[in-house]
Amino acid sequence: MEVKGFDLPRKQEGCLANKDELSKDPCPQYTKSIKGQDSAGDVTNIQSQAPPPKDLTLDVKLDPLKEEKQRKAASNKGASAPRKRNYDPDLFFKVNGKLYQRLGKIGSGGSSEVHKVISSDCAIYALKKIKLKGRDYATAYGFCQEIEYLNRLKGNNNIIQLIDYEVTDKNLLREVMNGSMSNKDGRVKDDGYLYMVLEYGEIDLAHMLSQKWKEMDSFNQTIDENWLRFYWQQILQAVNTIHKERIVLSDLKPANFLLVKGSLKLIDFGIAKAIMSDTTNIQRDAQVGTLSYMSPEAFMCVESDENANTIKCGRPSDIWSLGCILYQMVYGRTPFAEYKTFWSKFKVITDPNHEITYGPVSNPWLLDLMKKCLAWDRKKRWRIPQLLEHPFLVPPVPPQLSLSQNQNCQLLDLIAKECSNNQDALMISTQLSQLLRYPMSQITSQEQQCKLLSQISKLCCQLHEHLSKLG
């Protein structure tokens, strides 16, 4: 019997199948056609035929045996069918029994891939697929540990949210969740994968900065301080969240921050490490991090200082990386961008006498902020709670002037405008205005009051003298 023109299931047409569709027969019309063959009597009925010749008796006896074998094979095939894939892996990913349709690859590196996917309820996500086979257990352990960190940080708006995950190597995942690693020096032999379904972001900070600087260069613009404050504050809040959970990333870079619905969120905890509850630093087994953002102590994490103490990485190491990110946001490049090789970067970053070059900026608080983050001595670097209260983010409010002080200052401002061509008169007006704005609460003694009045009186006489010459 010829089978013609049956329709393909929806999932083969590129549409995301729902659970009901997946539970149905994948080819219902095809199944119906096969049943039709049985009912129509197209299959020859052996009992209805004439008795066979004697020399064919043996063949007739063997035919039922063949039929029995075929029936058993078909029965076994039917029993194992549910264990086979009932979806097209070229079109879908399956994580914990849920299907996610592929919309395109976002990026890849090594044995890792990130895809844009859509769920059955039409939500867009990013799906990270990591091949574990062939990796050393320490690296595979680190990838699985990222799941543990993201689960711990669920609900924080400045951390990327983990929607779902699956690790095909259940033993490895069990070791991570139990905080143990039995085969530290070995490699993963089984063909295992790690799948993570995450929030989907529009663009990371690295690409955002690149676009921003191209735009500013084309229009000959300078950095917008309000834009800088807005995103710098979000960066600090995100890192502050992981520091509160005693997690140090030590690989902070612009690509670690993803813009999700207008807000920057911290992503990628692949080489993060938790700090023990009774310490503030961690000792790493090897140097990790991106060279341009690595702190001096990250380069020297396997060395000792002058007191024979092992140099450790901790929260200050992340502060240094944040300082490099801020420097890049301000100047469009990292502090050590001119040093191209590993050894040249290593030499200047680990040199306590090397001075970082800062270009001119209009706001002195911005310069001070960068220096607070990029202090070579990690003990002198500000912590995030301090940075969140820095005057660049929280500008000091000038003291409110009394009515008489305000009127005097307005008068001096008018005089300064009239004396714009006379530099001496202009300077005196400016000095007088500053003295009149001086907060009286800071004058605690009579001697200070007399000194201030004397300065004001002297400047008034000088200004009167210059104005009389102009008149």
From TrEMBL:
Gene Ontology biological process terms, A to Z: chromosome segregation; meiotic spindle assembly checkpoint signaling; mitotic spindle assembly checkpoint signaling; protein localization to kinetochore
Molecular function as annotated in GO: ATP binding; protein serine/threonine kinase activity; protein serine/threonine/tyrosine kinase activity
Bias (Basic and acidic residues): 1-24
GO cellular component: kinetochore; nucleus
Region (Disordered): 1-60
Annotated Polar residues bias: 30-49
UniProt keyword terms in alphabetical order: ATP-binding, Kinase, Nucleotide-binding, Serine/threonine-protein kinase, Transferase
Residues covered by the Protein kinase domain: 100-393
Transmembrane segments: none
InterPro entries listed in its UniProt record: Kinase-like_dom_sf, Mps1_cat, Prot_kinase_dom, Protein_kinase_ATP_BS
UniProt name for this protein: Protein kinase domain-containing protein
Species name: Gossypium tomentosum
